[in-house]
Design goal:
Layout lengths: L3 H23 L31 E2 L2 E2 L21 H16 L14 H11 L11 E6 L2 H22 L1 H8 L10 H4 L2 E8 L1 E2 L5 E2 L3 H18 L13 H7 L6 E9 L16 H4 L4
Antiparallel strand pairs: 1-2, 3-4, 4-7, 5-6
The structure holds flavin mononucleotide.
Length: 289
């Protein structure tokens, strides 16, 4: 027994040391700000954090609606157009071919675009579904030359800091193939800039909850991209990091609105180029069960 005890202690010591070493190896690397590498997500714009609230009656900024249901809505018959199968196949192929030609274009022509076309593509975006039919979007269409230039100054100043300091080496390297940087000439050149704001809550006539507002607005943006492609206009989906608050003030939008996307819109410049990217084939993006 006297011989066994030191042996047991030795075995225990080895096992404990092994467990401590293994747990250290498995723990994540922690940077001096107390954040793990997995926490470092510079693309998560702080301004976009969801501040939609669950209605709790009155607060210092105004009264919340008890419910978003203002009136009872009548239900009406709905018979969408149906197509024969061969026609469906043809239409699905044509629409895919059209959308497959869509590219993010960073060289936009200054040629004017009819205003009514812009109105219609925004109308189309506004047909998107939205959580509890709250339609939590505002599309700010800018064609004023001075305002476009002010937008450019704000975006370029922030983007330079993003590229030089905030994004980190990995993100900058991942973007290298796209040859993007903080110079955004298209913000002056494009005949229209469409800035899409998500309304984190409604304000009229009383405050109301905008459920899933970011998902709803993102769907509207997707439909907007398709509508632009449909009329032969181009854009580049841009999410100018950390520019939201300044652009919101410049465009005099209320505090419940957060900038989600900025789309310069126009015809492609004659000498426009795009990176030669390929898209994943169906079998890599679809699982059929
Ligand atoms: C959410 C999102 C954010 C994007 N942000 C930017 C951006 O800030 N600047 C930019 O030049 N392109 C941006 N893009 C465009 C992508 O780089 C582009 O969609 C991608 O390279 C694929 O190219 P394609 O759009 O031509 O298919 C963004 C795209 C998405 C979907």
């Amino acid at each position: 027994m006297a011989v066994l005890t030191p042996c047991l202690a030795l075995v225990l010591c080895v096992v404990v040391s092994f467990l401590v070493l293994r747990s250290r190896r498995q723990s994540k690397v922690v940077d001096p700000r107390g954040k793990t590498q997995a926490d470092f997500k510079p693309w998560v714009d702080q301004d976009l954090q969801d501040d939609s609230q669950v209605p709790t009656g009155e607060d210092e900024e105004g009264k919340w609606a008890d419910s978003n249901v203002e009136d009872d809505v009548p239900h009406v018959p709905y018979s969408p157009q149906r197509h024969p199968e061969d026609k469906m196949l043809q239409r699905s192929h044509h629409f895919y071919a059209l959308m497959n030609q869509r590219r993010s274009v960073r060289f936009i022509s200054p040629e004017p675009v009819p205003r009514e076309v812009i109105n219609n593509v925004v109308r189309t975006a506004g047909t998107a579904p939205s959580g509890a039919h709250t339609e939590p979007w505002t599309f700010v269409v800018v064609s004023d030359v001075d305002t476009k230039h002010r937008i450019r100054l704000i975006v370029e100043e922030e983007e330079e800091m993003n590229y030089r300091q905030r994004m980190g080496d990995k993100w900058v390297k991942d973007l290298a193939k796209l040859r993007t940087n903080w110079i955004k000439e298209y913000l002056d050149v494009a005949p229209y800039l469409i800035l899409i704001f998500k309304q984190t809550y409604g304000v009229l006539p009383v405050k109301k909850t905008h459920y899933y507002n970011e998902i709803s607005v993102s769907i509207a943006c997707g439909i907007l991209l398709a509508a632009l492609q449909n009329v032969g206009l181009v854009t580049v989906t841009s999410t100018p990091l950390n520019c939201g608050p300044q652009l919101r003030l410049l465009l005099k939008r209320p505090p419940n609105e957060k900038l989600l996307m900025l789309l310069p819109v126009g015809y492609a410049a004659k000498d426009a180029t795009v990176p030669d990217l390929t898209r994943k084939p169906l079998e890599d993006i679809m699982v059929h069960i």
